[in-house]
Amino acid sequence: MASYLAAEPVYPLVSGSRPDLYRAFMCEVWDHAAGSGTVGMVHPDTHFAGDKEAELRAAAYRRLRIHGDFVNAGNRFFPPPVGRSSHFGVHIYGAAGEIDFDSLSWLFSVDVLRGSANAKEEGVDPGVKYDGDWDGRPHPKRVVRVTTDTLKRWQRLAGDEGPVEHTRLLTPVSTAEDPAIDALGLYPLRLGELGPDITQGYNETTAKKAQFGPSKDQRLIDFNTGIDGQHDYSAASWSEVLLKGPQIGVANPLFKQPSQGGGEVRGLNPQALTDDAVPESEYRRVASEDVFLGAQDRWTDWDAYEALLASNEERELARLKVAEKRKVLSEDVEDAEIEAFLWAKAGTPYSERYRVAWREMVAPDTERALYGAIVPPGTTHIHAVRSTRVASPRGTSLMAGFLASLPLDYLLRTAGVGHLDVAQAKRLPAPQPDHPLAPALLLRTLRLNCLTNAYADLWSDLYDHKWQAYEPWAIAWPGMRTELHAVAPTWQRDTALRTEYARRAALVEIDALVAVWLGIDADTLIAMYRARFPIMQDFDRVTYFDATERKIAGDRYTYGFDQTKDHWTQFEAFREAVGAPTPDGVLPAEPATPLPESASVPDGYTAPFYKANREREMRAAHAYFTQRLNEDIAKGLWDPVKMEVPKP
Known about the structure:
Elements: H1 2-5, H2 21-32, E1 39-43, H3 54-63, E2 64-71, E3 87-93, E4 100-107, H4 110-115, E5 129-130, E6 133-134, E7 144-147, H5 148-158, H6 178-186, E8 197-199, E9 221-223, E10 242-243, E11 283-285, H7 289-294, E12 298-300, H8 302-310, H9 312-326, H10 335-345, E13 347-349, E14 355-359, E15 372-375, E16 380-381, E17 385-389, H11 393-403, H12 406-414, H13 422-426, H14 438-449, H15 456-462, H16 467-470, H17 500-518, H18 522-532, H19 534-541, E18 543-545, E19 551-553, H20 565-578, E20 586-587, E21 609-611, H21 614-634
Parallel strand pairs: 2-4, 10-16
Antiparallel strand pairs: 1-3, 2-3, 4-7, 5-6, 8-17, 9-11, 12-13, 14-15, 14-17, 18-19, 18-21, 20-21
């Protein structure tokens, strides 16, 4: 059946892509429709995103009149086993012609598809969530008119090349996202232009097979369990760690650990980490060190390479080595052969560098879809993780800051990227190292990532003495005790941001900072948040921080460290007794009348409490960074059009 469905003589539009009965059925319906006929079908939308489905996608575009992307939230359309986050499409097709159709995405009600075109434009712009529930309001901004011009704009965002009709279908919730799509698409610098080294790490399957070493009889890795005298998953140093995807959080290299199990949502508590803490490792090295390192990708140390090229002694030694290997006279060795030999000599295993690593799988149905963090030298990983270094440690760290931001997360969700592999990673926007906001991004990124003394060299190398005078928090965070700019030139325990409040504050400010960097205004940043981050919205709605910067939350999937359900029950009684928060989100520490015993502050927490409000916070941080950038532009320190330092 699969061979028949993929056979080119039978289904030429399906051939070469994944065989699927619905795709064949689409083609049959198109072939049998009358020239002026119209047909409606409910079927999956996977052909709108794949690399090999370009011709099928183009044929669908030419026939589409209306496309509605529905979400099976709460199993409202289809019962299990169809998943609650599954998407499907309602498609109205006509005769093939110019590309011109209406597309509505993230629909939770048929009324939205029927009524949005004629609805009044009132209330806040549509999103995935509204007032704590799925947004089922018809709204004219939901109707996205798709033409070849639209596809050109979307093609720029995805970084695709080729015929415009092959462009992947994006699924913006509303036209309010258009400025974000355009800003991200027009941003001039991509990671691929920086010449990054990117590694896939060890293949989890083949690395466990005996096929390595001189005799092809060594395995590289094995499970790190059941070893006498050693706790399961334990590693003595970062060089013994082979990371898996869940161990990497957002700007957090020590997140979930193998021993915590698959149901863990909080990971390790940064406040409880020792200075020399090392993550666990599900795998251990079993090959010899030479074989293990020899199986790694090698990255060139360009400074070392230039030094080797400039050394007459090294060049002569290389000439002799090449002549010996080729069994020729030394004078017969070409300069190109010498340079190739020295280039190989300057290469080192990828694990010898500080890198930014990320989960290869993009998970759009979680709080965040993009998880990336800086990892120290010695660390390796399996192929569910990718890691890269760019021209310098500074550039690598700034890229880690970009990966921690909401705008890049939004880009992957909107473009439908399911796997952030090498090609997709090279299409991501990348930071200019001399941007006026680079010091602010670097400080926040390093303080989030440098959790242990394994980062001491990176910290001292990138430390900026101007931070202490010029890099406070962008927002006057209520009750915040941690000072952002109070850092020393050498790594210390308090170099890292460790409290839940301070870490969240830094991430929110990074979201706003990167938005300003990319040319995204505050209203558009809020539209991105509303349109693509429903779980984050749910979490923010029930998140508070106490006077010690400890989190307490009403959703068990975002509980603070050491929080229990009873803590939240206590907090709800306390919150009701003290009344509404102040305009800046602070719950009164003491009400006008004494609290009843049943409404006391939860055990282990300290009043007053601050209520998270990401929209207000991002707007305030955005205004701060916009003002900073505008001041530098006015001084002639940055060209906002070319996005570069003006040339003298």
